[in-house]
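Private note to self, pasted from the team thread so I don't lose it. Backbone tokens:
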């Protein structure tokens, strides 16, 4: 994995990649919802959701390998900022609550999204049209959308507090 980020902060390539993905995911989800709700383009919605699911799964897996195995944890990435030991300890202590809030959503999102996708594939098939599963799918879909949006917002807040803010 690459050792440095590309957004101009002392991070990693994968951390910056995930930040960009977090910025892009919400508008793409909104596009998907608009296409299915307004345009009745169920197949487009299905394909985009599957694509986003696979991309996010691969990105998060690569991100975790990078952060945990390559760098030994997010604290070591924060340490790239060349802070004094006291300042580093204070920054890590200040940043940790932001990460914990983010993890509430980041951990629940894949479970919601997997359940939504697996049930949709089972009940809608390759040529999705509204049916008996639509009501539950809407509930799961909105829960997944809200959860990934909160994952994105809290992830961006964590990135800002940990790596951008002095």
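Design output:
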């Amino acid at each position: 994995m690459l050792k440095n980020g590309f957004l101009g902060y002392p991070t990693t390539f994968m951390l910056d990649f995930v930040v960009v993905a977090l910025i892009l995911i919400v508008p793409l989800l909104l596009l998907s919802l608009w296409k299915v709700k307004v345009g009745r383009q169920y197949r487009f919605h299905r394909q985009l959701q599957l694509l986003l699911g696979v991309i996010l799964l691969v990105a998060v897996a690569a991100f975790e390998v990078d952060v945990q195995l390559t760098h030994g944890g997010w604290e070591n990435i924060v340490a790239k900022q060349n802070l004094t030991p006291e300042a580093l300890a204070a920054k890590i202590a200040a940043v940790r609550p932001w990460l914990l809030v983010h993890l509430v959503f980041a951990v629940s999102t894949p479970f919601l999204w997997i359940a939504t996708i697996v049930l949709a594939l089972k009940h809608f098939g390759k040529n999705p049209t509204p049916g008996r599963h639509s009501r539950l799918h809407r509930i799961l879909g909105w829960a997944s959308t809200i959860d990934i949006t909160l994952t994105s917002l809290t992830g961006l807040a964590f990135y800002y507090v940990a790596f951008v803010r002095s």
